[in-house]
Write a structure and sequence with these properties.
Radius of gyration: 16 Å
Largest sheet: none
Shape: elongated
Number of helices: 4
Helix content: 55-70%
Number of domains: 1
Order of helices and strands: HHHH
Strand content: under 5%
Structural class: mainly alpha
């Protein structure tokens, strides 16, 4: 996914991508979901819980969380775990 994202960014900046915007948006959401799942697993492991219990969240949840996380200061591990 990262490779495709980079290729689309290059095509878009060269003016050679008419459909790049939509695909870039889709990739951004998918990558945000992957990063969220990795953070959940790490936080659960750090809290002594099973990382296997982490679940892929819907795009709506992840994007809402991403937006609020960008506008708020970073929180510690226990607060992040409580948000899962």
């Amino acid at each position: 996914m990262l490779e495709e994202e980079h290729q689309l960014w290059e095509r878009e900046s060269a003016g050679d991508a008419t459909d790049a915007d939509q695909r870039l948006a889709e990739l951004r959401v998918s990558l945000d979901q992957c990063w969220d799942l990795l953070r959940q697993r790490r936080d659960r492991r750090d809290a002594g819980l099973s990382p296997e219990s982490a679940e892929l969240r819907s795009p709506d949840v992840v994007e809402r969380y991403s937006q609020s996380a960008r506008s708020e200061p970073a929180q510690g591990g226990t607060e992040r775990l409580a948000a899962t």
